[in-house]
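User: My collaborator sent over this chain with a note saying "see what the structure looks like." That's all I know about it. Can you take a look?
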Amino acid sequence: MARPTAHSGSSPRHVSLVALPDGVVSTLFGIFDVMNAHALMGVHAPFQIEVVGETAAAMDLASGISIDVQRAIETVEASDIVIVPSILLRPEGWEKNRYPRLVAWLRAMHGRGALLCSACSGIFLLAETGLFDGRDVTLHFGYARAFAAAYPAVRIHPERALVVSGLREELVSSGASTTWHDLVLYLIARYAGSTSAQEVARMFALQWHQDGLAPYMIFEGKIDHGDGEIQSAQRWLSGHFSIASPVEEMIKRSRLAERTFKRRFATATGLTPIAYVQRLRVEDAKRRLERTEASVDEISWRVGYEDAAFFRRLFKRTTGLAPGAYRKRFRIPEFARPSQPKT
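Assistant: Without extra context I'll predict from the sequence alone. Here is the result:
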């Protein structure tokens, strides 16, 4: 195993890795180990990493694992980088004002020059500082609606793996789940150089999510809008999106004039009727690419497109990947498939 290049800086940058009871153990420990790779391999490390929390004591995380918090936040007067790892939201959603001491400390660290970084859903805590209002962030796409409701002043881009914002590029957020890899590699590249980041990526077999997160996102049309006429149209469309001219058929089935229907549909769902149809068709095509041997041309026809070339362009524009590349990435590999019983 190759060793990462020694950091040329004179002193390591202090990293505060925030632990809180809602935290997910895999992200916290993963960030710690990868950022600590240089020290693990016995070369000069660019970072000094400490797990910090409201008290320096044992803490049970949301994963059910107990960890030892190394330092209480009151004893950390300054830090170069503060990272809030993934948190697990409760069924009732994010509870604001649950960690006022942490929020005040995060504001103080930012005021003293620290980078504030989130992994996945860690942005819920950071957004409570108000420092991300009017800024761009990313987070797990599954939490996007809940976050938008809690923090409407923050601009969210769940399709992006990493977002760097702020006047000093000091507000950094990573997207769904393992995009903490992108966050850590970005920080290593920023402070220890791109060569060091490449070597750490090789050592841990990490990959940048250079295609973004659109390929991973599952389309779920908004249905909690309260417009019964449009909800009825959506229910019908969910089983008939592949027919010829589904938008025209929806309008015929409704009790609304064409212009009224299209306006109300867009207001209720956030998408025009034809864009909504396209998203349903692409989503069905994704499942067929993942689970069947059907050709792209056949899948194109089955989801409602006679022009396979148009379907390919639409699929790539929607997911960021060509159909063949999507199938290669998301199909279960041969070695992992159950063996067929011999007859």
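A starting point for your reply to your collaborator: Residues 273-291 form the longest helix (19 residues).
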